[in-house]
Design a protein that fits this description.
globular, Jelly Rolls, alpha+beta, two-stranded parallel sheet
Length: 296
Amino acid sequence: MKAVKAYSKDFFNPDTHPIRVIKIHGNTSPQHDGDLTGIKHFHDFAELVIITEGYGIHWIDGTEYPVAAGDVFLLQGKTEHYFKERHNLVLYNIMHDSFRLRQYLKNLQTDAGYNAMFLLEPSYRKRHKFRSRLHVERKSLAHIESVTQHMLAEQDTGNSGYDTLLLCMLLELIVFFSREYSKVKIPQVQALYRMGKVIGKLETAYLKNWSIAELSKLAGMSKSSLMTAFKDATGHTPVDYLIRIRLQKAAELLMNTDLPISEIAPVCGFCDSNYLTRQFKKVYSASPREYRKNNS
């Protein structure tokens, strides 16, 4: 069965925050326009799945996973998936374009729980056999359902500012889930949390010249294990990841200030403007001056 591609343009209003909430109730399909719940598909946006009742089998990238009420997990873009079985299943899909929302999610990257659940867990899902997913207790589901029901009500009415409220409530849920994830004692989750701490430290202390020894101690891993795990999760070595954080800070200053490049370099962790320029060209395919001109 070939996977169907779902496009963000078919789900999100281009003039509002790219967030849409769908409730799936029971075993029948389709339940809304573009319902792909029981059809193998992937999309160019993220999907936060919250299961509140029942159980089923969720097929993700070639592997079948049992899921049940209380399970919460993120499906990133390009992930093939569908529900192979649904037994009295009730779930909420919060579809969102994380790239377009990146300015609102940026500060969360300093949080170990957020990094572990929303960045690392999807990459380690198959290796951990889905044991590292978040499972919340019944008492927490009442709060979660209250928020998601409010999101649906705002979405349906479409009153002025509804999309801003959707964004606020999505961020509330993400913070709530990140905090809950940090409390999980399962070994696989604890390993991801320690890795999340490394990413959080790099995000907050990006001026520090971190050694691999310091980072491996923080993660509770050997140097070689850290290097392998970090690249598997992020696509970069810790040093490359740190450089990209510094470059992002430099890009923000280039766009939002008139500071000369010679002053931007040291406040972003670069020893001089020449080194900043060389690294900037590698990532942004433009010099800092060209980038400022094109984004002013």
